[in-house]
Design a protein that fits this description.
This protein is mostly beta strands and 245 residues long. The chain is 0% helix and 45% strand. The chain has no helices and 15 strands. It has strands at 15-17, 22-23, 27-32, 39-43, 60-62, 66-75, 78-79, 83-89, 96-97, 129-132, 136-157, 168-174, 181-187, 198-218, 236-244. The N and C termini lie far apart (73 Å).
Length: 245
Amino acid sequence: LFSMRPVEQGVLMPYVSSRGEAFYDTLSIKLMCRTEDAKIRYTIDGSEPTFDSPLYTKPIIIHQAAAIKAFAYTSDNDRSFTMSSKFIKSKYPPAKYTASFNERYNGGGAMALTDGRFGITYFQSSEWQGFEENDLEAVIDLTKPTQLNNLSIGFLNDHNVWIFFPTEVVFSVSDDGINFKQVAEIKNNIPITNQELMIKRFSTKVDNVKARYLKVFAKNIGVCPDWHKGAGGKAWIFADEVTVE
């Protein structure tokens, strides 16, 4: 005969609490652990933390991109696995949206279009920002008058989950953030009936354009076509990253 006893659980791995992975100015990061009385050691340069690494006592304020690694412990012989998390510094402040993105597929929030992260062909990857029925219309503050040569934005096509390419993408520029002038219009050249899982970058060159503000507009088809399994249902567009060169 033998008795069944619960397996003792060691120190739980710490986790991060912050307002997102991308930031513009500074970002406050909290390290937390669900193991009572556990202490946390961490690094912010991507190196492996040790017992000689800084002891976490208050929120970490970062001003540049960082790769945080941390472990929790209750004694020298009882420590957790190491967690890791990367934080990205954007060149631009959060975009301002006319119609909001869907919170379930937020891509990281208002920084999603300029955080340097590009999506993969999996709609639930964290880089994608989804708009259900709504068009995408967002204004990016380039922070100073900037010479523009190449503009692009990426979109996902995945009909299985009602995601379609936009019918067109329009780029406009402004010096004051109020009065905008259109500088490029890109029509979707892939038939709407093409059900291939793919990513397309809507790209364009512009000549002799200098501006402080950039507006991107992407037209949603609105509802799924008659031939689609979700005919009449709300269609999505999924965007990842605006590039400005």
